[in-house]
Amino acid sequence: MAAELVVISGMSGAGKTTALGALEDVGYFCMDNIPPALLVDMLSLMNSTFNGKKIATIVDVRAGQTLGQIKSVIEDLKLKGVLIKIIFLDAKDDVLINRYNLTRRRHPLSTEKDQEIEKLLVEERRLLQEIREMSDYVIDTSLINTHQLRSEIITIVEGKSERVLKIFLESFGFKYGLPLGADFVFDARFLPNPYYVESLADKNGNDPEVIEYLQRFDIVEEYTNKVSEIIKMAIESYSKEGKSVIYVAIGCSGGKHRSVYVVNELSELLRKDASVRISHRDIQR
């Protein structure tokens, strides 16, 4: 029986420990922080000792200079008949920074002289570029929780179903600032504004009266359809690259009327193409 190896790599704080734990729960023999040069000997030992038991390991910047050997090691293992899947976990820089601030963990590249997390993330991305390009799957964990990540990992390794790209749609008000980490930001401020209709000012884009008002204008439907087509085009291309989440932000002045309506309409238009989740950031302001 050919050995099976899953290599988890990616940015520090992107969820590698969670991913490895998910693999352990479904029967993988798991090891953390294995230098690439030891993978060949490790696989040989594990295959003879456990008779082809499935193996998973994390390989990341903690491997130091040996990380540069990863490409040749993976190629060597494939020639030996090892079945390999490489999963790379990533997240937006602002998300990673927030996670570090919450946990107060030390970044593996930090030194006494250099502890600025923004600079360390840039260097980490540079060091991991080769293994990222080699990866079979790239998962963006910016907008998914640990339970969703575990489910995604198990789906990949067990092949129970096709991976479905997820779309996160968020309405917001420009007056309160741009959402951090959005892949696309669309401006709906030029559309007719219900705020200037006295009976609608205190309502929002979920209310029937606002919906009915905006549906009177052809430009609103045209705008929503064109944004939908752009996102569908992105879905097709991103899916080929292994991207798991697209974060789309729709803004109007206050984030209560037009952007809320457009997000709701887009969610209906896109549900056939992707798994859709919505959020209205500023609707209660």
Describe the structure.
With 285 residues, the chain is of the alpha/beta class. It folds into two domains: 4-158, 3-Layer(aba) Sandwich (Rossmann fold); 166-280, no CATH class. The protein has nine helices and nine strands. It has helices at 16-25, 39-50, 70-79, 93-103, 117-134, 146-158, 208-214, 218-241, 258-270; strands at 4-10, 29-31, 55-58, 83-90, 137-140, 166-173, 184-187, 245-252, 275-280. The chain has a five-stranded parallel β-sheet, with helices on both faces. The chain has a four-stranded parallel β-sheet with strand order 7-8-6-9, covered by helices on one side. Helix 2 links the parallel strand 2 and strand 3. Helix 1 (16-25) crosses helix 6 (146-158). The radius of gyration is 23 Å and the shape is elongated.
Relevant terms:
285 residues; Rossmann fold; 2 domains; 9 helices; alpha/beta; single chain; four-stranded parallel beta sheet; elongated; five-stranded parallel beta sheet
